[in-house]
TrEMBL record:
One of its GO terms (molecular function) is DNA binding. Keywords: DNA-binding. The keyword DNA-binding applies. InterPro entries: CheY-like_superfamily, Sig_transdc_resp-reg_C-effctor, Sig_transdc_resp-reg_receiver, Tscrpt_reg_LuxR_C, WalR-like, WH-like_DNA-bd_sf. Residues 7-125 form the Response regulatory domain. This is Unannotated protein. The lineage of its organism: unclassified sequences, metagenomes, ecological metagenomes.
């Protein structure tokens, strides 16, 4: 299954890899736009309004692909994200305390020649954007997958602080805090329900996993 006509943004600073990806994906019917930096990628998001972003983590120039991905997750959560890297991301965390955004896919550059694998990952991530579920358990390595800042936000949530207070303490916007809280809910397996307080449940699960509730 492919997604012909889907607008796809390739963010890759190695020209040969960028051309390879663009040619392969265009041959499959994707409408492809390319960028070689985070700055250029943000411009292309405004210009072409992509459905999917294929992002190299190791971008040069100071800002990594993860910086761009977390920007997208906050400002354009409807854009599906798939990451590329030559590094094994089995822990879900890559440098600078940043984790992969929840729901993002990953493909190793070592297997990038397997076009079917790349397209299958794209399909799975895109389908996942439309799945609304009520997870019942925390994902493996849940705390690690949140990254340094995400864990700090959930630590403050577990301590009973409001989003406004957390934003003031961390020097970020409330919208950013809301994004990390939402990430925390998903990673900890907390779904939305009219019958329970999701924030309290997330706090309890965080305490259980981190051991912060043990005296």
């Amino acid at each position: 299954m492919t997604l012909p006509g889907r607008r796809l943004l390739v963010v890759e600073d190695e020209l040969m890899m960028q051309r390879l990806l663009a040619n392969e994906l265009e041959a499959l019917g994707f409408d492809v736009t390319c960028a070689d930096s985070v700055v250029e990628a943000k411009k292309q998001v405004k210009r072409c309004d992509p459905d999917i972003a294929l992002i190299d983590i190791g971008l040069k120039g100071g800002l990594s692909g993860l910086h761009f991905g977390h920007y997208l997750a906050i400002q354009h959560p409807d854009i599906a994200q798939i990451y590329l890297s030559a590094v094994d991301l089995s822990t879900g965390t890559v440098g600078e305390g940043m984790g992969l955004p929840v729901g993002a896919g990953f493909v190793s550059k070592h297997s990038i020649g397997e076009t079917k694998l790349l397209v299958e990952v794209i399909n799975q991530v895109v389908r996942g954007k439309h799945v609304v579920g009520d997870a019942s358990v925390a994902a493996p390595g849940a705390l690690e997958s949140l990254g340094k800042k995400g864990r700090r936000v959930m630590e403050l949530v577990a301590s009973g602080f409001s989003n406004q207070y957390i934003a003031e303490q961390l020097g970020v916007t409330q919208k950013t805090v809301e994004y990390y809280v939402d990430q925390g809910y998903r990673a900890l397996g907390v779904g939305q329900s009219v019958n329970r307080n999701s924030r309290v449940e997330a706090a309890l699960r965080y305490q259980q996993l981190s051991g912060s509730g043990d005296e």
